[in-house]
Specification:
The structure is a single chain. The chain has 14 helices and no strands. It has 322 residues and is mainly α. It has one domain. The longest helix has 32 residues. The radius of gyration is 20 Å and the shape is globular. The two termini are 32 Å apart.
């Protein structure tokens, strides 16, 4: 106990993350069966947010760019999945091709938009990514329309397990599995020589170029990786609800950015933690009395969490001070 009190006195801000997590979990568990079920849904929804957040962090970590096109990688992927399934392409093949389509879009955006503006001010690149998102949404509307679409989930069973009194479908469990697998793969990647080169380029681009490593080529790799993460988010989230052009951007992008900022814009583990916090916080707002009184209660709680965490740790929970 003395050691804990000493830690609180010396590094009070280091306890912000655990304190927030414990408070959110207790708030839902004490809200009865409804709150306990919302905790499960919040954790899974937060895992989905973390896929968006990790893609945002990858781009920012490598180049300092806020990528507003991240959501459209996911929207393009779910539309490709929808079109392929409509033409009776087997689900696994359609799933893989949809994610590859997102990766291709990421490569095209990097080569066609980001690389020509590589030395431009960061705000110029930010606006360029927003323009890419608007163009993608416009093309989706032009090729189709704004009607709601649906695509069947990868697995149809909706009652595989029942933690804390709520049934979970195989599709939602798949989201958890994918997030864990992606996190492990990224951790392994950044231990390889190529991953270390990406980290070096993000920290000191000039020195990286001087030792013969092309920072611009590494930028292409990172954009493809971020696009794959966005594509995975799209094909995993799309089957859980109806979608329209701009689906991932309008529904998940802001929450993904919030998760990235809460966790720390330079930390991939922070993106996962931030996603979980946002998902559970949103569940609290929807499950409690605030959700009954205010239609957007989940967003209110998310906003309050963001302000409170940044007031105590401006760099985010796992971000580094600059």
């Amino acid at each position: 106990m003395a050691a804990v009190l000493e830690l609180v006195r010396e590094r009070p801000r280091s306890l912000v993350g655990p304190g927030v997590g414990v408070a959110l979990v207790l708030a839902l568990l004490l809200n009865g069966e409804k709150g306990q079920g919302s905790l499960v849904i919040g954790l899974i929804t937060g895992a989905a947010y973390s896929l968006i957040a990790m893609g945002i962090v990858l781009i920012y970590k490598s180049s300092g760019v806020f990528n507003f096109a991240q959501g459209e990688f996911g929207t393009v992927a779910i539309f490709v999945l929808f079109l392929l399934r409509a033409n009776d392409v087997p689900y696994v093949l359609a799933f893989v091709l949809a994610v590859l389509a997102a990766a291709l879009l990421g490569f095209v955006v990097e080569v066609g938009v980001i690389r020509p503006l590589f030395d431009a001010p960061r705000v110029t690149l930010l606006v360029a990514t927003a323009g890419v998102a608007l163009l993608a949404i416009g093309v989706q509307v032009w090729l189709g329309d704004n009607t709601l679409r649906n695509v069947e989930p990868a697995f149809s069973r909706g009652d595989r397990v029942r933690p804390l009194g709520i049934f979970l479908s195989d599709q939602r469990l798949l989201i958890l599995v994918v997030v864990v697998a992606v996190g492990a793969l990224l951790a392994l990647f950044f231990r390889t020589n190529l991953g270390l080169a990406v980290l070096a380029a993000s920290q000191e681009a000039t020195a990286t170029n001087l030792v013969g490593i092309s920072v611009r080529r590494l930028s292409g790799l990172v954009w493809v990786q971020a696009a794959v993460l966005g594509g995975l988010a799209g094909v995993l989230l799309g089957p859980t609800e109806s979608f329209t052009p701009g689906f991932v951007t309008s529904r998940y992008l802001i929450l993904g950015f919030t998760a990235a900022v809460i966790g720390g814009m330079t930390s991939l583990p922070g993106a996962v933690l931030g996603g979980v916090i946002v998902g559970v916080g949103e569940a609290i707002g929807a499950a409690g009395t605030l959700g009954d009184a205010v239609p957007g209660g989940g967003f209110v709680i998310t906003f309050l969490l963001l302000v409170a965490i940044l007031a105590l740790r401006p760099q985010g929970l796992l971000g580094r001070s600059t």
